[in-house]
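Exam revision sheet. Question 4 asks you to relate a sequence to its structure. Input first:
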Amino acid sequence: MARDLPFVDAHVHLWDLAHISYPWLTPPFGEDGPNGSVAPIAHTYLLDDYLADAGGWDVRGIVHVDAGAAPEAALAETEWLQAMADARGMPNAIIAFAALDGPDVDTLLAAHARHPAVRGIRHIVNWHPDPRRSYTARDVTQDEAWARGFARLGRYGLSFDLQAYPGQFEALARLIARHPETQVIVNHTGMAVPGEWEGWRAGMRALAALPNVATKLSGMGFTHRPWRLEQIREYILEAIDLFGADRAMFASDFPTDKLFGSFAAHLDAYAAITADFGREERIALFAGNANRIYRLGLQL
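Answer key, structure tokens:
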């Protein structure tokens, strides 16, 4: 069992819909988007709700990742989370939102970085030739403005959470290679699209070749709906093989992954897939790597 291991959850979302606007959690809801309908999670979700869902797991820390607030509320979300961290001790790290191609990106990065719990930035850039899968109208990572914004992260000591599709990875790897000072964390096992195994593996291999890139193991339900343990096993094991057990980390992605199954269903599946791993490797995958890579400073 992995429930006897410490768990540092590398990807959590919290939101108070009465306090901050989240357009993607606002009706009307449809089934045609990349996540399907999000109606089941379109209600306020706070730290105590997360801790209840995670009951039975030894959660030592959590990393809060940009939860899709309205862009103009990005700093308000950071301020709200920092106040929570100050009062409750969690979240232990904040990955804030900033559009890297925005005209005021320097100002926003500096404002986020002034908050002690902020460790990095996420700007979702998933683009796919199938418009039903795309989160953006075009691939903004090809723009010089976006590359310039990415280059600014190092100035503020910020990491970058990369949520993109495998078809974008090889070009992104060339950009990331020019900025070894910036830690990059691939979100959701690289967002593997069914039927595109070789493209996913090639893209993940290109990123894994860079020592400043790690990956989170989560979110299989985004592209494999519904997912099954045997279906995701090869992706999880291949990702660990490519990045090594010291650059991969499990995450719940709650409550978003709640659309695809319970906390226990996800975490118990990851535990089963790694049942043959040594204890030290499992501690690294479930806690140690997130603690180190996100600079949490926890005693595990």
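Marking note for examiners. Residues 74-88 form the longest helix (15 residues).
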